[in-house]
Hints:
The complex is a heterodimer. Chain A contains eleven helices and ten strands. Chain A is α/β, with parallel strands linked by helices. Chain A has two domains: 1-79 and 170-265, Rossmann fold; 89-168, no CATH class. In chain A, the strands form two sheets. In chain A, strands 6-7-8-3-9-10 form a six-stranded mixed beta sheet, sandwiched between helices. Chain A is globular, with a radius of gyration of 19 Å. The relative contact order of chain A is 0.16. Chain B has a single domain (8-324), classed as ABC transporter involved in vitamin B12 uptake, BtuC. Chain B contains 14 helices and two strands. Chain B has helices at 8-25, 30-55, 63-81, 87-110, 112-115, 119-137, 157-175, 178-195, 200-226, 236-249, 254-270, 278-292, 309-312, 314-324; strands at residues 148-149, 228-229. In chain B, strands 1-2 form a two-stranded antiparallel sheet. In chain B, helix 3 runs antiparallel to helix 4 (87-110) and helix 3 (63-81) packs across helix 9. Chain B is globular and about 60 Å long. At the A-B interface, helix 2, helix 3, helix 4, helix 5 and helix 6 of A face helix 7, helix 8, helix 9 and helix 14 of B.
Amino acid sequence: MAVLNALNVTHHFDGLAAVADFNLNLEPCELVGIIGPNGAGKTTIFNLITGVYRATRGSISFAGTEIVGKTPSQITSLGIARTFQNIRLFKELTVLDNVRIAHYGKAGYNPLEALLHLGRFRKAEDDIIAHSMDLLACLKLESYADEPSKNLSYGLQRRLEIARALATKPQLLLLDEPAAGMNPNEVAQLLEFIQWIRKEFSLTILLIEHQMHLVMNICERLLVLDFGETIAEGQPRAIQNDPRVLEVYLGECGDDEEGGTDAGS
Amino acid sequence: MVQKRGLMPALLTGVFVLSLIIHRFELLDPYVQLVAMYIGINIILTVSLNLINGYMGEFSVGHAGFMAIGAYIASFLTVKVIPAPLTAWLFPLAVLAGGAGAALIGLIVAFPSFKTRGDYLAIVTLAFCMIVKSAIENIDALGGPRGFLGMEKLATLPWVCFWVVLTLWIIRNLVYSNFGRGVLAIREDEMAGALMSVNTQHVKMLAFTVSSFFAGIAGALFAHLLQFINPRAFDILKSTDILIMVYLGGIGSIAGSILGATVYTLLLEILRPLGIWRMVLMPLMLVMLMLFRPKGIMGLREFRWFVPLRDRQRAGTWLEKRGCL
């Protein structure tokens, strides 16, 4: 069964169509990329899937469950986790607390047990710490566990955001521009890292990216968005040569940096 | 492995036992006991408001409203409902009823907080405080604007201490739990919290209910200490007093709340000879505080003993355990 199935999803902001008739079918363990110029509606799609916005029309189902109309926390508990374009960690809190918060949906004790620190509380809290630390160790962040997350370097903050998303035990991971602000060397590392977490946690991944190098190398399938409309879909190689895509996206930046990065690959 | 317990329970039990001894053998003169009780009540108010304003990062100015509800419910019960010979015995129940009533209303106030936050929620809580005051002023059975009296002086030092200890323990437990981390997530980034599976509506309901419950308890104790209450005692100025204690002691800190409530209450008493100048000096101190220590004395820091062991040396312990395996 498809992990995610979006059917004719449309979203309007005060009459302006941010996303129009968006269709997407994600099979288990696929790695699909969404590309498109700024303002094409890529992040809006993430916001629609995770329940931040409610789709004006259309349906989105996750593993067979309709999720349009559910709250973000419900959707996350079902198994969709995400990162953000601009890092949105809990800055003042420690690295460990950032990851522990993401266990909220699976804590398994009620408010009364929390207020009295009784019953299932102790066991559950110990488990949360153990699991959080395992996860941090897995992503080589364990030595920063007691640091406030704002003290971490930019690259580590990105990694922590992924760790936090993984702590919700997702099946589907949405990465919003994971390589933003990274140099080519870091991008290469990130590429490996994404491949690795995908295998390690058997994840289906949907990512938004601007860096063509990254998308072309790891995505099995690409969707190209422009002004909210899907203008092309298919294998990266085919997309690269699609005349419409070249025109609206690759074409217009053929001479600047991004084109250069791409040629360099 | 036997886990060492935190010192908090021992510390708090000690305080409670001490209060019992002081009360039983009248070790302190009544005035000092009275001030101590005011400090206790203020600690309850400060810690409970800190949950909303400090830990959750909202700005509630309606705490006096919850206090009023607790005060009037408990007073009505002890004066009009419970037969006179039984009041001393049933006083704890009356206090509990005051807290429960306030908690129920607190739950209702949580609903607007789903939709709005920051300054707008502050206005909602301000309006709530005014509604409570006007409502009481218009209920004749509660004495209307003239106030309500006839309560016996049932709030004794041990009782106040008992409730202070319970408040500190429960709020500490809440803060260091899954729900407490949800509260912190709301302060740091509500949307990111929701997207990390935190049910922000549940968390807000719980936080407002617990916070207003203890405000109601404080109100009930206050009424049975002063033996006279009137609606004006619970207006925005009372809320401001509590806010000052929260921000003086430090947001997001239990130790800070204790410190803030104690320092503020003591200063007001010590500066009493200054008369009206007291009201000039205190705000001036606040201005200084906000300029030089905007997060308060203990802002976002905690007294070590108040932190449960599990949260205190977590990463280190975990790494050690892993080393043993």
